[in-house]
Amino acid sequence: MAHAATRGRCVWLNAGDGGAQLAWLEPDDVSLTYDATRREVTRHASGRRDVIGDDIFTVLAAELAAGLPEDRWFGYFGYAARTDLPARTDRELPDAVWMRPSRIERLDLPGASPSAGGGGPPGSTPGWYRAAFEAVQEHLHAGNSYEVNLTYRARERSALSPLEVFERLWALNPAPYASYLHHDVPGARAFLAGSSPERFARIDAMRSLEAKPIKGTMPRGETTAEDAAAAERLRTDQKFRSENLMIVDLLRHDLAQVCEVGSVQVPSLMAVESYASVHQLVSTVRGRLRPEVRTLDALRALFPAGSMTGAPKLRTMQIIDEVERTPRGAYSGALGWISADGRADLGVIIRTVMTDGSGAYTLGTGGGITVQSDVDEEFAESQWKAERLLRALQG
């Protein structure tokens, strides 16, 4: 993978079947970046920068339509990528990066050495988090939202390169949507190293659209008995189950906007899935796209992931914009690939560190808040979700 990174623009994605996709760009290959503050989509190729639009979904759809059937684009949409939804813009990284590589290879996955356990004891809950939590509770009790995904940023400096951070993160915390994105272009630098377990959306050759929202997380136990008890608590706890059900209802609504009537189903509700450091409560929502709906139309309708906003989406995003202290940037967005033949597979950008290459890294963490939530428990959850990311940065 290191040789691809020397080209300046590349991406590595876990393919989920024991292999990985490595794609990289030559100088005359095209990449797109989006600045939500300026509302500018910029096209990068052969050292040139040209502003070609104001909506990344529209521009990317046009590029796919104009290209070859075998074209495949790799990249991400940041949280503020949709111009019609309330989200603060981020000046640290582009709000979207998409790349059309001329070289794509299949690779064996690098070695991983996962271990159980969710990290050390959390610190005390700081006042700024308590204030944000109380503001969320006021909105919940007023009926403005049923669930709010409250997040915050952590910042760390590291002497490690972004690629070294990703290699450490993969060894510590392998995940289905592990990814590394490298866009080393002056004025539009973005490096993401992630180990996300959550599917944002997959569209297959039969135009079946599937999302797998995660709501409900427990750290792995240190012993077999503790681990089994943690999984059972996750499976039966009423707070976790109500959180998950609210997001499933939101996803059913989102899919119904673009899927054939009667095709939206929930084939799996609240299944416990176990990963290196956590157990997660995962549901599957599936539908069949209507004939006139393009892939980018469907992805836009679902974006951002309901698990990262809460319900209802628009009003809850307004609350998030009010109570969170910093923009989310790429965090809470979606990263993966989109093919000109209509297929796509993207994960939610969680468990991910981000940098512009300066040695300063940011990561987002948080969780869903309902009227049943406890402030200290929620802050503790946000800390152990971030624990392996911080370990990867510490070298």
From TrEMBL:
<feature type="domain" description="Chorismate-utilising enzyme C-terminal">
    <location>
        <begin position="129"/>
        <end position="385"/>
    </location>
</feature>
<dbReference type="GO" id="GO:0008153">
    <property type="term" value="P:4-aminobenzoate biosynthetic process"/>
</dbReference>
<dbReference type="InterPro" id="IPR015890">
    <property type="entry name" value="Chorismate_C"/>
</dbReference>
<protein>
    <submittedName>
        <fullName>Anthranilate synthase component I family protein</fullName>
    </submittedName>
</protein>
<dbReference type="GO" id="GO:0000162">
    <property type="term" value="P:L-tryptophan biosynthetic process"/>
</dbReference>
<dbReference type="GO" id="GO:0005737">
    <property type="term" value="C:cytoplasm"/>
</dbReference>
<dbReference type="InterPro" id="IPR019999">
    <property type="entry name" value="Anth_synth_I-like"/>
</dbReference>
<dbReference type="GO" id="GO:0046820">
    <property type="term" value="F:4-amino-4-deoxychorismate synthase activity"/>
</dbReference>
<dbReference type="Pfam" id="PF00425">
    <property type="entry name" value="Chorismate_bind"/>
</dbReference>
<dbReference type="InterPro" id="IPR005801">
    <property type="entry name" value="ADC_synthase"/>
</dbReference>
